[in-house]
Write a structure and sequence with these properties.
The protein has 17 helices and 13 strands. The strands form three sheets. An eight-stranded mixed beta sheet has the order 3-6-5-4-7-10-9-11, sandwiched between helices. Strands 8-13-12 form a three-stranded mixed beta sheet, covered by helices on one side. It binds 2-acetamido-2-deoxy-beta-D-glucopyranose (NAG) (6 copies). Pathway: Protein modification; protein glycosylation. This is Hexosyltransferase.
C-alpha cells in the first residue's frame, strides 16, 4: 500500500475511511485454512503463483473472480473504484456470471454428484424475491423503533415446521419480555414438495398476519440452499435493522437460554472499548481446520472435484451470535465470495475475507451435552444454547429456566445508547 502514497487515515470516501475501502478491495481470497498445515501445499505467496487447487470447481470460480478484481492485474480499474464509491458499489454488485464464465470452467462439472450439479447451476443467483416479510420492520417485537434492539433472533425454519416455531414463540423466542429489546424473525424458503391437500403458503401467510415474524424468499428450501438464507438475511437486515446490536442466528430445533444470552451480551457492551471490538464480534461453537466431509452418503459431502483445502475457522450453524455491525460488513464482503453449499462454512469464508476469526464460547453446545448432563435440568443454567431439542422438550426446559432463574432486569440501556 505504500506505493500508492496515500495518507490513508485522512481520506474518506462517502464517510467511510479510505483504510476500510482499501481493506475491502485488497483482501484476496485463497482456499482457506491451509496456512500452517504441513499436509497441504503452502499458500502461494504472490498472485501470479499457480494456485494449487485449480482443478476443484469452487476454488476455480473463486479464483477467476478474484483475478478479475485483483488491483495488481487491473490497477487502473481498482484505483478508479477506490476514488468513486458509486463505481465501487457497482463492482461489488456485479453479477458473477459477468465475471466468471462457467462454461469455460465446466471441466469438472460432470464429476459432481447430482445435487451438487443442481447447486452449481444456480450458484450465481442470489436475488430471489421476498414472498413474506415482517411488515417493513425489523422482526416481531419491533414496536418501538426509537429504542435500539439488543438482540434479534433469526431462526432458520421450513414451512412445515409450524410446531417448532410455535414452541419457540412460547419459550425462548418470546419477544418483549425484556422490555421489548428482543425481536424475532423466522427465515424460510419454499417447500419443494408441497402436499396437494395443504396449501402451506396460505397458512404461512396467515401465520405472518398473526405474528409478523416471517421472512420468506422464493427459493427451494433445501440444505444446499441454506446459504441463501444468510446472504438474503444480511441484505434485509442492512435495510431494516439499523439499530440492532446483536443477531442470534440458529436452527429451529435448539434450546437457547435467552436470559443467559441477554446477560452475556449486555456484558459485552459494557466492556471497555466495546465500540471498537463490536464490529468484529462473532461468538459460537468454533470449528477450526475442518476437512471437507468426503463420505459420499453424508449430507455434508463435498467431493474434492468441488472444493479442496481445509475450511476456514467457522462457528457451527446450529447457533451463533454476532453484532449488527458485523452483519453489515458480511453483507458487503459476501458479494465477492461465491456461494458455498454449506452455510456456516460460507460465513467462515466471508469472515476470513474480513480477517476476523470467530470466538469460541464453551456455552454453545451445538453438538449437545454429554448424556448424563442432558438429563439434569440444572445443567441448562449455565449454557447459552444446546442443539437438538423437540418442541415438547423446549417447553419443559423453558419452564425450568424460568423457575430457577431470577427475573431479568434489563440494565443495558445506558451502555446501549452510549455506543
Ligand atoms: C481522486 O479524485 C480526485 C478528484 O476527484 C483527484 O484529485 C485525485 O487525484 C483522485 N485520486 C486517485 C487516487 O485517483
Ligand atoms: C463514478 O462511477 C460512476 C459509474 O461508473 C460514473 O457514472 C461516475 O461518473 C463516476 N464519478 C466520478 C466522479 O468519476
Ligand atoms: C465462455 O467460455 C466458452 C468456452 O471457452 C466460450 O465458448 C464462450 O463464448 C464464453 N462465454 C462468454 C460469455 O465469455
Ligand atoms: C446476470 O447476468 C446475466 C447476463 O448479463 C443475466 O442473464 C442474468 O439474469 C443475471 N443474473 C442476475 C441474478 O442478475
Ligand atoms: C416463485 O418462483 C417460481 C419459480 O421457481 C415462479 O413460478 C413463481 O411465479 C415465483 N413467485 C413469485 C411470487 O415470485
Ligand atoms: C435452490 O433454489 C433454487 C430456486 O428455487 C432451485 O432452482 C435450486 O434447485 C435450489 N438448489 C438446490 C441445491 O437445492
Amino acid at each position: 500500500m505504500h506505493g500508492l502514497g496515500l495518507h490513508t487515515n485522512k481520506i474518506k470516501v462517502k464517510n467511510i475511511p479510505l483504510l476500510v475501502w482499501l481493506t475491502l478491495i485488497y483482501v484476496h481470497f485463497v482456499a482457506p485454512g491451509i496456512l500452517n498445515n504441513k499436509n497441504f501445499a503452502p499458500l502461494p505467496t504472490s498472485f501470479w503463483a499457480l494456485h494449487p487447487y485449480e482443478d476443484a470447481f469452487w476454488n476455480r470460480v473463486q479464483l477467476a473472480h478474484d483475478r478479475y478484481f485483483n488491483p495488481i492485474l487491473h490497477p487502473k480499474y481498482t484505483k478508479r473504484a477506490m476514488n468513486n464509491s458509486t463505481l465501487y458499489e457497482s463492482l461489488l454488485k456485479q453479477n458473477f456470471s459477468d465475471v466468471t464464465n462457467l462454461t469455460s470452467i465446466r471441466r469438472n462439472f460432470d464429476k459432481l454428484p447430482q445435487q451438487m450439479q443442481d447447486f452449481v447451476r444456480h450458484m450465481q443467483r442470489r436475488d430471489y424475491p421476498t414472498l413474506l416479510r415482517p411488515d417493513g420492520v425489523c422482526g416481531a417485537g419491533a414496536k418501538d423503533e426509537k429504542e435500539p434492539t439488543l438482540l434479534l433472533l433469526a431462526i432458520k425454519t421450513t414451512e412445515l415446521n409450524f410446531k417448532n416455531r410455535q414452541a419457540i414463540r412460547r419459550t425462548w423466542g418470546q419477544v418483549g419480555w425484556v422490555a421489548g429489546y428482543v425481536r424475532r424473525v423466522f427465515l424460510l424458503g419454499k417447500e419443494s414438495h408441497e402436499e396437494p391437500s395443504v396449501d402451506s403458503s396460505k397458512l404461512l401467510q396467515l401465520e405472518n398476519d398473526h405474528y409478523g415474524d416471517i421472512l420468506q424468499w422464493n427459493f427451494t428450501d433445501t440444505f444446499f440452499n441454506l446459504t441463501l438464507k444468510d446472504v438474503l438475511f444480511w441484505s434485509w437486515f442492512s435495510d431494516f435493522c439499523g439499530q440492532t446490536r446483536f443477531i442470534f442466528k440458529g436452527d429451529d430445533d435448539i434450546f437457547v437460554n435467552t436470559p443467559n444470552m441477554v446477560t452475556y451480551l449486555q456484558h459485552q457492551l459494557m466492556k471497555p472499548r466495546a465500540h471498537k471490538t463490536m464490529k468484529d464480534f462473532m461468538v459460537g461453537d468454533v470449528i477450526r481446520e475442518a476437512m471437507p466431509n468426503r463420505v459420499s452418503d453424508s449430507k455434508y459431502f463435498i467431493p474434492d472435484a468441488f472444493y479442496r483445502g481445509l475450511y476456514p475457522a467457522y462457528a457451527g450453524g446450529g447457533g451463533v451470535v454476532y453484532s449488527g455491525l458485523l452483519a453489515k460488513r458480511l453483507h458487503s464482503v459476501s458479494k465477492g465470495v461465491h456461494l458455498f453449499p454449506i452455510d456456516d462454512v460460507y460465513v467462515g469464508m466471508c469472515m476470513m475475507r474480513l480477517k476476523i476469526t470467530p470466538v469460541h464460547h464453551p456455552g454453545f453446545f451445538t453438538f449437545d451435552l454429554p448424556q448424563k448432563d442432558a438429563e439434569q435440568l440444572c445443567s441448562y443454567h449455565n449454557i447459552l444454547l444446546v442443539h437438538r431439542r423437540s418442541p415438547d422438550q423446549l417447553v419443559k426446559l423453558w419452564a425450568g429456566t424460568l423457575s430457577t432463574q431470577s427475573p431479568l432486569i434489563y440494565s443495558g440501556k445506558m451502555s446501549l445508547q452510549s455506543l
